Amino acid sequence: MNKISKELVEEHGINEDEYKFILSSLKREPTFTELGIFSAMWSEHCSYKSSKFWLNKLPTKNENVIQGPGENAGIINIGDGFAAVFKMESHNHPSFIEPYQGAATGVGGILRDVFTMGARPVALMNSLRFGETSHNKTRHLLNGVVSGIGGYGNCIGVPTVGGEVEFNSSYNDNILVNAMCVGVAKIDKIFYSKASGVGNLVVYVGSKTGRDGIHGATMASSEFDDSSDEKRPTVQVGDPFSEKLLLEACLELMKEDVIIAIQDMGAAGLTSSSVEMAGKGNLGIEIDLDYVPCREINMSAYEIMLSESQERMLMIIEPKKEDIAKKIFEKWELDFSVIGILNDSKRLVIKRNKEIKAEIDIDILEKGAPSYQRPYKIINMKDCNIKESNLSKEPPLTILKQLVYSPNLSSRKWVWEQYDHMVMTDTVLNPGGDAAIIRIHDTNKGLAITTDSTPRYCFANPYEGGKQAVAEAWRNLITVGSRPIAITDCLNFGNPEKEEIMGQFAAATQGMAHACEELDFPVVSGNVSLYNETNGKGINPTPAIGGVGVIDNLDIFSTHNFKREGDNIFVIGKTLGSINQSIYATEILQNNNGCPPKVNLADEKNNGKAIQILIKNKIIDTSHDISDGGLLVALAEMALSGNIGFELLLEKEFSSHRFLFGEDQSRYIITLQNHKIDEAMLLLNEKRIQYHNLGKTKGAKLVLNEEEISLKELKNLHESWFDNYLSGKEN
Amino acid sequence: MKIYVKIMPKEGVLDPQGKAIENSLKQLGFANVQGARQGKIVELNLDIKNKEDALALTREMSEKLLANMVIEDFEISIIKDDL
Amino acid sequence: MKIYVKIMPKEGVLDPQGKAIENSLKQLGFANVQGARQGKIVELNLDIKNKEDALALTREMSEKLLANMVIEDFEISIIKDDL
Amino acid sequence: MKAAIIVFPGSNCDRDIAVSFRNVAKVEPKMVWHKETHIPDCNIIIVPGGFSFGDYLRCGSIAANSPIMREVVKKSKEGFPIIGICNGFQILTETRLLPGTLIRNNCLSFICKTTKLSVVNNRTYFSQKYFKNQIIDIPIAHNEGNYFANDEIIKELEGNNQIAFKYCDEDGNFSNEANPNGSLKNIAGIINKKGNVLGMMPHPERATNKLSRLNDGEQFFISIAETLL
Ligand SMILES: Nc1ncnc2c1ncn2[C@@H]1O[C@H](COP(=O)(O)OP(=O)(O)O)[C@@H](O)[C@H]1O
Ligand SMILES: [Mg+2]
To answer: Phi and psi dihedrals of A186, rounded to 5?
Structure first.
């Protein structure tokens, strides 16, 4: 028998006060298995002990929200009897240790969160952040993560339709791998995790349990140090084939009236799934681990309870329906085993080899979980004024060439070509646009999906950065012609026990909350990943936002590629020339100072609504929001994707670097055919929106005053950076 | 000198390929199969005369590139000595 | 009984993985590498006592499933005799 | 006309091809689970894309040993039309219904993109609606699509007009740049000697979608519907 020593408690990430609470509530010393259970349930990952206070401030409702945070995924009503089910989740630490398997199992986990609710997954997205390109691990990690995401998504047959990739030195030893999944369900066929019915069976389905990822949940929440290599054997291996079987088996069973509650076994495996299901139902649960299908011999209660083997689910069903369920899982050649029963004791009882190994009041685990209002200090960068004389002397198109061949602005084609983004044949807008568009199968309705975050803004001013991330997601959904509905988020930050990191978290979530409120764009699901630091150095605060919008009629949407020569190019929204924290400032001037551009939420909304009307009334079919890199980069992306050039003759004030490369927010570029100009002006004037006519689409080159470059040359630059980097020609 | 590096999933690490092979063999009627694991083998041709040097170098290459030490173990064997 | 089946690309068959390994090793500075080929290894656990039977059965399994005789050769070796 | 679509555990383009048969060929397909030992009454058998049995061991190798494939092989001997797409092509080479094999892409990564194909042989039941050498846009999505066979087989394929589709550039040249995966002779699809069995890596079912502006695959299904009706 393991004696519970002080060291052992510490090793389990349980602090002194927490342990005291355990002793006083149990009125005895916990068993080793119980200690493991407490440690998993009270880890940052499962308990949100540092973040709960701030998360509670986020708006989570609007008229379309069916299910907000608290379930496996969020659910929105998208009309015609359909619901969209979505969530984003991090797999940062496992991916740093083993990039292929870490990323792959990240995808597997988020897929399960969605299909456990009765939705068929229809799209995957991923938000990735790596260290600077010259760092010795970056190439290996990039390669492994991208092929791991592809390996899993391609095999299971869910299209990976978009995401983001960023390189920055703050992620050198702590990359971020955030995966998002969107599924579609019938509104009257949604499944939840709340257990009910004393006497109902607790059923284990899916793959067998091995010693994978034991301590995964505690690992994901503890700061990295140089000894983290020793924690390696805990990495799980993904089996997308089994997941595909599990997906089909679950969806098949969900057509029958059998499942009372269902939940995937994610972080902290059987522990958190059983505790959460019983807890939500205000019931007790008794599990006999001898019935858990195991892959290895002699697994202890502790190991089985904490294993994070993948591709497993826990269900509650009525005893008389056991046979129906069993038959389906047998057809798909998956394990199916009744491992326990619900009762009204409100306790968790775990047996192994006829002995009770754990017996805890579920209330102690859940309501008794620690929650901290950690001290915080918000640090904003002082504003600075980059002097005219410090701007680059190069002409704009020369700078553009450098930007489109830079790690953070080059084409991501190398990434998305490794993802099957077309399987299911409902991908209407492929990766490369502002948001992906997925058709709801067999209908003329669509979902627009985007992921966004600008961590360098968040570092300089976390409140503004949080606000901006939400606004940018909203903008990307607007610009393809959808109605933005709601978001999921993945909040990646450093060590919350440090005041300035907690300050970043507090301010960023407040900024997010503010933007969500103003834009009627609530948070319906999400995930927090803290302790993203290595040897004491924190990452840039990275609140990744996954936004979902609805397109009611797929005959009308907008894309960013130029469509015709001779169209008039307009920029919509105020251009003030904010270059602090722009890519121009950081990449070209190597200047990382100052306050990021601020989002004026009233303008954001007003401009967005105008774009929405222009698209809906078929006045425009071409639009692009202006984000990283500013106006000229946005224009170049439109030209490159449409394979049509442009000619701009700009007066001095409009050809300045501040104008062309500044990153003022809430702006769009649209193109107008001659006969549509009046109608558009009328609307924009009525809404008092600033606009400016820049020039026309034309030919096979980009012309800016006396400078020009061929589309072909620019395309070559834009599309070759990744290949050159990966083949080692570029650092 | 010709050298083989045999790379197998570590004990306890999930091996979905091995599992699939086992199931398939059983379905084909090979009832005596009690387990299967799949690994990789890399055959290297080295321009080295000395056995010790070759082994040391191969170990280095295996750790650095050929095997994924997080989930795999490797084993080296010399198959053709030039001498 | 434990048996290995080593499966290698046939001579003359394109082996993109082997080629890539060779290139990566050279790039990592291992200049003595003159060639690399990649194959698979399947480790089988058989419930058979007799060596000859085990070999014959494994040959059959290899031909039927484990190797693709169009592009691969295989080689069987017993690694653990139960006797 | 009736179409049977074989479904393996891990198939993932089975629904897509069913949709194309339903919407374009106007044929309601039947899904046939791999454990069945009888092929229902039909005019054509489709082995769809995906990752049958996870593509573990070798792509298509485990599926090729499924009970239903024995029936498919029997049917092929009778001259029955059989089409394998992507993983289906890999399965058909594993059953030896088609010569050669598909090895790892020469770039060593999965590739999903729209490729240009030249319709090299337009005198088949699935390509008769195309012009000879017509250039069509059809997506690929695979990790092992690199067609390989010995010289003899290649000569035979060429001699008997058994190459159905080749990867080409916009001018119809079979250049290296236009070859996405290293396939010998830019081969994207082949037929057997009798002409009843087709295997191809590209996905015509992904090019019947008006919304994504890809519809060069429609004539593939219309050809089938018209010839086999
Ligand atoms: N990891 C990825 N996976 C798939 N697609 C990606 C990934 N990263 C970026 N993309 C795609 O590349 C395009 C450009 O990305 P980004 O510059 O972040 O767009 P935006 O500025 O509109 O948010 C988008 O269409 C995006 O979906
Ligand atoms: Mg955008």
So the answer is: -75, 140
- Cross-chain residue pair A233–B15, CB shorter than 8 Å: no
| Torsional sign, CA A323, A324, A327, A332 | negative
Catalytic residue positions of D? Answer: 86, 203, 205
State the SS3 of A343-373: ECCCEEEEEECCEEEEEEEHHHHHCCCCCCC
Mean pLDDT over the full length of chain A: 95
Q: Identify the CA nearest to C5 among candidates C82, C83, C72, C81.
A: C72
Report whether residue A407 contacts ligand 1, using a CB cutoff of 6 Å. no
Residues of B in contact with D54 (CB under 8 A): 16-17, 20
pLDDT single digits (tens) A423-471: 999 999 999 999 999 999 999 999 999 999 999 999 999 999 999 999 9
Distance CA D193, CA D196 (A): 8
CB contact under 8 A, C16 and D108: yes
Nearest-angstrom CA–CA distance, A50 and A529 = 11
* Residue with CA closest to ligand 1 atom 21: A627
> Beta partners for A312?
A206
Q: What confidence category does residue C78 fall into, taking pLDDT thresholds of 50, 70 and 90?
A: confident
The complex scores an ipTM of: 0.93
pLDDT on residue A234? 60
Annotated active-site residue A624? The verdict is no
**What gap in Å lies between CA A429 and CA A424, rounded to an integer?**
13
A157 in Cβ contact with A424 (< 8 Å): yes
Report the alpha-carbon distance of residue A314 to residue A302 in Å, rounded.
Answer: 18
Residue C38, strand partner residues: B42
Single pTM value for the model: 0.95
Percentage of residues in chain C having pLDDT higher than 70 = 96
CA angle A110, A113, A118 (to 5 degrees): 130
A426 lines ligand 1 (CB under 6 A): no
Residue B15 forms contact with A (CB below 8 Å): yes
- The pLDDT score that the predictor gives to residue A361 is 97
Helix, strand or coil, per DSSP, at residue D19: helix
Tokens 């997954």 — which residue?
A121
Looking at A342-498, list the stretches that DSSP marks H as alpha helix, in order from N- to C-terminal side: 362-366, 396-404, 413-416, 455-460, 462-479
Chain C residue whose CA is closest to D90: C68
Extended beta strands in B1-83, E state = 2-9, 33-46, 72-80
